[in-house]
Amino acid sequence: TWKETMEYHHGADTKATFTGEPTARHDGEKISARTLQVAFDQNMRLARITAEGQAVMDVTSSGAGENKDPSETGNPLPTTLLPGVPPGKAQHWRISCGSLVILPAEKCVRSTTSGTFTLEGEASSGSISWQEKMNLNSVEGYAEFSGHVVARVSGAELASDRLRLDFNPGGELRHASAKDNVHFISGGENSRELTSDSAEAVFAADNALRQIIARGQVEFFDQEAAVHADRLQLFLESSDADKRSSISRGLAEGNVWLSYRKEDLEAGGDRLSLDRQTDVYVLTGEPYAYVQRGGVKTQNWKITLNRQTGKMVLPPGERPATWSAQTSRTSP
Description:
Elements: E1 6-9, E2 15-19, E3 23-26, E4 29-32, E5 35-40, E6 46-61, E7 91-103, E8 108-111, E9 115-121, E10 125-130, E11 133-137, E12 142-153, E13 156-167, E14 173-186, E15 192-203, E16 209-222, E17 225-238, E18 245-260, E19 265-275, E20 280-293, E21 296-306, E22 312-313, E23 321-324
Antiparallel strand pairs: 1-2, 2-5, 3-4, 4-6, 5-6, 6-7, 7-8, 7-9, 8-11, 9-10, 10-12, 11-12, 12-13, 13-14, 14-15, 15-16, 16-17, 17-18, 18-19, 19-20, 20-21, 21-22, 21-23
């Protein structure tokens, strides 16, 4: 539909252009803008829709059982693009930007202008904004955003220069990769903050976060501790009761430093592995790793520490070097 003009050109490049609040509907999608141009192939099949000026694309999903395989449906949007949003729920997607190009046959949506991707559903809501460009391809199963990207969902925010999301044929999120100037922060009871050069996230079948892998000048803070390293890998688990993810294990490598907020404990080395359930920490370093509790510092190439009992174990036959600490590193 349109309110002003329609121009139609038939030939090698068959197309129609509409102005005056034009709106197009295709396979459950509603597309509107100041100007809409619809292009057709030689067999008069819809090849491309170009929306210019305040472009908006709306898609509504009824939930379970819909759009299970993007390669077999017309809907180019995944069912669960944002983390923490349970699959199989009714959702309303909206893309708002300066201009949009929709390629129905390839099931692609592209934009080279700034914009916002928003979700409003039964279980959750969220958004992804970008400043440069966006490319969503449902057949190949990915979405890419670039230019000061900010993703917000379930009380958490992720900012980076580039963000790529990969999802399975059922539209469920499986992997997220953020690059350059990564900053993640989540509030609530299990608040966390992470900054790094790049970061990856791996999701389980229920769209729950399972792993975080950060690289390059990593700084991680939660309510208990602060960790600095060149590389940090965190493994998360969800309780059956509230489905919230909590850290179960961690591995830090390269220029590692660890400090606890509510107790006088500091440790460092080249490599640190930790188990949150047993509170056992293993540190190694070349020439040595160290653990400092109170005014006493212990160093060795390998140290195993039980944080709760305070017991430290060294390789058989080795004696710890200990002394009263004169200075202590503080968090930058």
